[in-house]
């Protein structure tokens, strides 16, 4: 038995070594999925998936050079640029998202970082979207301390800022901001009291040791991100990664399973790239511990399977969308989860498709 197989998997740890992570990746596929599923069931209702909708509030013309991104002004991808969306239009999108079952509304702007003049608009968006009864998330690039505090004051629940890949491979993908810049923004978000959404992209030509390095960085943060998006590269024509070779889908599933094992209480999210995945591959991802998806017609600027197709898949798999609950404190969260997990343990093993 390897060192990885002897680890107490449900423990929250922040001291992973790359060797240990690589040992998880090297487990036989069935053993890895079984372990991930055990960890998943210890902390979550295995038949619930959180649903978020993503809205691009400012599209294209980004000064950064992220090699995968059609929104970078440096690549000719034919993307239509759009200025910062009016608050009323954002609210229209948020109402539609809520009506189609989303519980979290994520707003993304293609900026290196927000400017001072943008802050009143984005904070107003947060306040008004929250007033609709949705959780809010934003991704606006790098933040300074004041901006993080302003967003937290407005009531922003989550801030997304991805590490993208390992510290070692990062320079192959982005040169206009450093890995350290990203870690600092994540720290500011945490210090301001918001929840962290941070993950990466798989299939950008990195090796398994880089995928292990990315997950190690995320899991060894002082607190695990509450939300961990694992994206599959979408090869957009005109970007430097358009000719990248396809990744073995099982390697993607392994990545989900390893993320689940290393960050047992985080929501692991299937994000960009889901459109190219078959229903069977998405199902394997849920089995590996993914329990959050982006849903809606567009994922920023790349396609996303239509919302009702997602709901049909949920129906075929007996998955329910996770409801948005407002809890008084952590103890209430734990109590709710414990009762759901107990229900799950008492439930019959086989899903009754006739119900
Ligand atoms: S990923 Fe974000 S920061 Fe990078 S080019 Fe795209 S929009 Fe800009």
Detailed description of the structure:
The protein has helices spanning 18-25, 29-43, 87-99, 119-131, 145-154, 179-191, 208-219, 249-262, 279-287, 307-317, 330-346, and strands spanning 48-58, 104-109, 135-139, 158-160, 195-197, 200-202, 227-232, 267-270, 292-294, 298-299, 302-303, 320-321. It is an alpha/beta fold. It has one domain: TIM Barrel (Alpha-Beta Barrel). Strands 1, 2, 3, 4, 5, 6, 7, 8, 9 and 12 form a ten-stranded parallel sheet that branches. Strands 10-11 form a two-stranded antiparallel sheet. Helix 4 links the parallel strand 2 and strand 3. It starts with 17 loop residues before the first helix and ends in a 9-residue tail after the last helix. Bound molecules: iron/sulfur cluster. Iron/sulfur cluster is lined by residues 62, 64, 66, 69, 71-72, 110, 141.
Structural key phrases:
iron ion binding; binds iron/sulfur cluster; 355 residues; TIM Barrel; transferase; ten-stranded parallel sheet; 2 iron, 2 sulfur cluster binding; 12 strands; two-stranded antiparallel ribbon; alpha/beta
């Amino acid at each position: 038995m390897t060192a990885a197989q002897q680890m107490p998997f449900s423990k929250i740890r922040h001291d992973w070594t790359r060797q240990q992570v690589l040992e998880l990746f090297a487990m036989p596929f069935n053993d890895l999925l079984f372990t991930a599923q055990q960890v998943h069931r210890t902390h979550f209702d295995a038949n619930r998936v959180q649903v978020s909708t993503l809205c691009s509030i400012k599209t294209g013309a980004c000064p950064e050079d992220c090699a995968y991104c059609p929104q970078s002004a440096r690549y000719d991808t034919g993307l239509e640029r759009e200025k910062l969306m009016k608050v009323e239009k954002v609210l229209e999108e948020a109402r539609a998202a809520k009506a189609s079952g989303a519980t979290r509304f994520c707003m993304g702007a293609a900026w290196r970082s927000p400017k001072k003049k943008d802050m009143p608009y984005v904070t107003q968006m947060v306040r008004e979207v929250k007033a609709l009864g949705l959780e809010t998330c934003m991704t606006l690039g790098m933040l300074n301390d004041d901006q993080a505090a302003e967003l937290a004051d407005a009531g922003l629940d989550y801030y997304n800022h991805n590490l993208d890949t390992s510290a070692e491979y990062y320079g192959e993908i982005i040169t206009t901001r450093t890995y350290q810049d990203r870690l600092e923004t994540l720290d500011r978000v945490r210090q301001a009291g918001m929840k962290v959404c941070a993950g990466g992209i798989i299939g950008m030509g990195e090796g398994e040791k880089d995928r292990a390095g990315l997950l190690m960085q995320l899991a060894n943060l002082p607190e695990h991100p509450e939300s961990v998006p694992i994206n599959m590269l979408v090869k957009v024509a005109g970007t430097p990664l358009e000719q990248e070779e396809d990744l073995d889908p099982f390697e993607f599933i392994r990545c989900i399973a390893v993320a689940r094992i290393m960050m047992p209480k985080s929501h692991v999210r299937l994000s960009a790239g889901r459109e190219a995945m078959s229903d069977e591959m998405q199902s394997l991802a849920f089995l590996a511990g993914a329990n959050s998806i982006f849903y809606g017609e567009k994922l920023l600027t790349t396609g996303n399977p239509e919302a009702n197709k997602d709901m049909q898949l949920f129906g075929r798999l007996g998955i329910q969308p996770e409801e948005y609950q407002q809890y008084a404190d952590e103890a209430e969260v734990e109590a709710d989860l414990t009762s759901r997990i107990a229900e799950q343990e008492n439930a019959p093993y086989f899903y009754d498709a006739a119900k």
